[in-house]
Amino acid sequence: GAVVSQHPSWVICKSGTSVKIECRSLDFQATTMFWYRQFPKQSLMLMATSNEGSKATYEQGVEKDKFLINHASLTLSTLTVTSAHPEDSSFYICSAREGAGYEQYFGPGTRLTVT
Amino acid sequence: DAKTTQPPSMDCAEGRAANLPCNHSTISGNEYVYWYRQIHSQGPQYIIHGLKNNETNEMASLIITEDRKSSTLILPHATLRDTAVYYCIVRVVADSWGKLQFGAGTQVVVTP
Hints:
Distance between the termini of chain B: 37 Å
Shape of chain A: globular
Low-confidence stretches of chain A: none
Low-confidence stretches of chain B: none
Strand content of chain A: over 45%
Structural class of chain B: mainly beta
Radius of gyration of chain B: 13 Å
Order of helices and strands of chain A: EEEEEEEEEEE
Order of helices and strands of chain B: EEEEEEEEE
Distance between the termini of chain A: 37 Å
Helix content of chain B: under 10%
Strand order of the largest sheet of chain B: 1-9-8-3-4
Strand content of chain B: over 45%
Shape of chain B: globular
Number of strands of chain B: 9
Number of helices of chain B: 0
Structural class of chain A: mainly beta
Number of helices of chain A: 0
Helix content of chain A: under 10%
Number of strands of chain A: 11
Largest sheet of chain A: 7 strands, mixed
Mean pLDDT of chain A: 93
Radius of gyration of chain A: 13 Å
Oligomer: heterodimer
């Protein structure tokens, strides 16, 4: 089956710094990628959708200048959390879809802790 | 997309069938029913989806009522590894974005 990887699997950063999370589709071309955030004991919340080579579309309430998304190739999307604060600590999960396929393939997630 | 309602939690005995209900009374004719699950601290995993016919794959069966207002995911022989949060999602099939909106899901605990 299709595999999506994320790097790093966990990261600790200091308040005020920026951190980049990578999402890669390993064996298929991801025309669309999605970024989710999940706080403890809560469900996944969609943050943004991106198509390769286009600007990301952010969900209402998600700050696009804080969460920078770059979908530069058909196999790589990055999420950069800028000027991170402790309230940004969360589990960030990406998913990818190939073409108009119905299935989204999810990455294993990245645990971000901001101290 | 239509909202879904699921019980917050369910217990199931190992080896028995687990029947997970989902209500989607406002579902539209062009919306599919999808099921995903999320094992603790992992990304969600696709299970199955359907429009109006019952569906079966190697993981589970999906039973959709004739009026499509509810559905049941059946795990035929639950194992301890099936302990997870199960999400029922309805989505417009023609949505070019393919966005998924996750609800609260059902926490399923399989016990020995």
